[in-house]
Write a structure and sequence with these properties.
This protein is mainly alpha-helical and 322 residues long. It contains twelve helices and no strands. The relative contact order is 0.11. It is a multi-pass membrane protein. This is Phosphatidylinositol-glycan biosynthesis class F protein.
């Protein structure tokens, strides 16, 4: 071995030991906690799903709906089956009240989801107190809110257009074409309100533009509703209720084909209540999945921090010993 190679190796070993010493002296990296308002999210989902159920079961039976009820039905309200009678006597009236209540609730729910998406986009983290970051978040919020009314208008337009599309699909699946067209459209409107409006208001309506924002938005819609691949809690809160709505509407049409001749088999009561039930189940499922994934990510982060702390302990003990 030549004498010149020994000093080179010694210098390399000194550099490596210096790098290891610097890495050991660095503090453990504190990974930021992604913004996930679990407490608020749980309470809002509970209130929202409860109000959706109230809209479907109690709103058509209120004093306002009694103005549009026949006198014969008003005289039978004291009987045990008055609830079913009120809901099935006029399916068009029942579905109209469900759509009206769902419209109000979905506007509130979509607004809350939009604010949540804004906080996630602005990079809000738990315990963040950086003045510069707060200023950037404030500017982003102002820019986001400036287009709120335009986004709301486009979301309403998307809901109306998709309601027509859903109505055509429902007719192709066997809904009556010569009668009950208004009932079929209200069913399509209900499905659009529960599945499309929140996504359109929160994510934005996809377009065929060539700019970066339009491309990202279009690919996001394809990933969510074609690939069924949500990546964030907000996307899961949008996608799972939409899937539940469509599946519930489809499953709810099965009892109509049964030859039971029951009043609740009138078109389109069972698909409408199936869509509402599927939406509630999807919302609760999204809550459960988001909660479990959040706990898993917190545990994984703590394990990584503990492992990095253990790797740095021997270096510090050696340094103290020397």
């Amino acid at each position: 071995m030549s004498p010149t190679t020994q000093p080179q190796r010694s210098r390399k070993s000194q550099k490596q030991s210096g790098k290891e010493r610097e890495e050991s002296e660095r503090p453990a990296v504190q990974l930021p906690t992604a913004f996930f308002p679990f407490a608020r999210y749980t309470s809002v989902v509970g209130v929202h799903t409860s109000l959706i159920a109230f809209t479907a079961l109690f709103l058509p039976r209120t004093s306002l709906s009694s103005l549009f009820r026949s006198s014969a039905a008003n005289g039978q309200l004291g009987k045990p089956d008055d609830v079913l009678l009120t809901l099935t006597e006029n399916p068009l009236r029942t579905l109209a009240w469900i759509c009206a209540g769902s419209c109000v609730l979905q506007v509130w729910w979509a607004s809350w989801l939009r604010n949540w998406a804004l906080d996630a986009r602005a990079g809000v983290t738990e315990g963040a107190d950086d003045t510069t970051r707060r200023t950037e978040q404030k500017l982003l919020r102002e820019e986001w809110n400036s287009g709120r009314f335009a986004a709301f208008r486009m979301a309403c337009l998307a809901a109306v257009v998709t309601s027509v599309v859903f109505s055509i699909v429902i007719i192709l699946y066997g809904a009556p074409l010569n009668s009950h067209l208004l009932r079929t459209y209200l069913l399509g409107l209900l499905v659009a309100l529960l599945s499309v409006f929140s996504a359109a208001y929160t994510l934005g309506v996809p377009s065929l533009g060539s700019d970066t924002e339009s491309l990202v938005r279009r690919l996001t819609w394809i990933r969510l509703f074609a690939e069924l691949s949500p990546r964030t809690p907000v996307e899961r809160a949008i996608l799972y209720p939409a899937i539940g709505t469509v599946l519930g509407c489809w499953v709810g049409a099965i009892p109509i084909g049964l030859d039971w001749e029951r009043p609740w088999q009138a078109w389109p009561l069972t698909p409408a209540y199936g869509a509402v039930s599927g939406y509630i189940v999807g919302s609760l499922w999204a809550l459960a999945i988001n909660g479990v994934r959040q706990l898993y990510e917190i545990q994984l982060r703590e394990n990584r921090e503990a492992a990095s702390a253990k790797r740095s302990e021997p270096q510090h003990t050696k340094k103290k010993g020397t």
